[in-house]
Design a protein that fits this description.
By secondary structure, the protein is mainly α. The chain has two domains: 57 residues, no CATH class; 126 residues, AhpD-like, CATH 1.20.1290.10. The protein contains eleven helices and no strands.
Length: 198
């Protein structure tokens, strides 16, 4: 399914999307110098009532969440890797770097919690992401460790981040949405082969 070109958006679509997430508004100004929107906006515009609501939910997690951005991006990247979602990976490697993940950590995301670069708290986040992808729940041992670090809002938010991005990955993979640019998932797979593990 191809993204809907902005030139084909009706006023209702633009109105629904405006304000849903601040970073998306600059694409919808209609100005001649407005940057081209990322493909995901065009995809969500094909079902604007659901798409705009999803964008608002995602925007809340990205811009108004309680999780440290580094923790959030680590969760998203692991979900992107585990679901083999090329779009998520391409979009969030740069965001992870901006949030404080080091190049060697980004390279170790495919290896998961076994990579030597991670702290124990990082390992718990990676394990939580894996458990949510695999069995749709976090086991008691990981939950206890996460509970010692996060309050109730943080715990719920990390579940929403992982679960929300699994849902998004299913959609993006199913419609075949490709990133316009960004780091390649296949290149990450080749680089992961040399990542030291415990």
């Amino acid at each position: 399914m191809e993204p809907l070109p902005v030139a084909e958006w009706a006023d209702e679509q633009r109105d629904l999307f405006r304000g849903a997430i601040a970073r998306a508004d600059r694409y919808l100004t209609g100005a001649a110098d407005a940057p081209p929107p990322p493909p995901i906006l065009g995809l969500l515009a094909r079902h604007p009532r659901v798409g705009a609501t999803w964008l608002a939910f995602s925007g809340t997690l990205l811009d108004e969440g309680t999780l440290d951005p580094r923790d959030r991006e680590l969760l998203i990247l692991r979900v992107g890797w585990r679901t083999r979602c090329r779009y998520l990976w391409a979009q969030h490697v740069g965001m992870g770097e901006a949030a404080g993940l080091m190049p060697e950590q980004l390279a170790a995301v495919p290896a998961g919690a076994a990579a030597v670069v991670w702290t124990e708290p990082d390992r718990d986040l990676l394990l939580a992401a894996d458990q949510l992808v695999d069995g749709h729940t976090v086991d008691d041992a990981v939950w206890r460790r996460l509970s010692a670090r996060f309050d109730e809002r943080g715990l719920l938010e990390l579940l929403f981040v992982a679960g929300g991005y699994v849902c998004l990955a299913m959609i993006l993979n199913s419609v075949g949405l490709e990133p316009a640019d960004g780091p390649d998932l296949d290149a990450a797979a080749r680089g992961a082969a040399g990542t030291p593990t415990q």
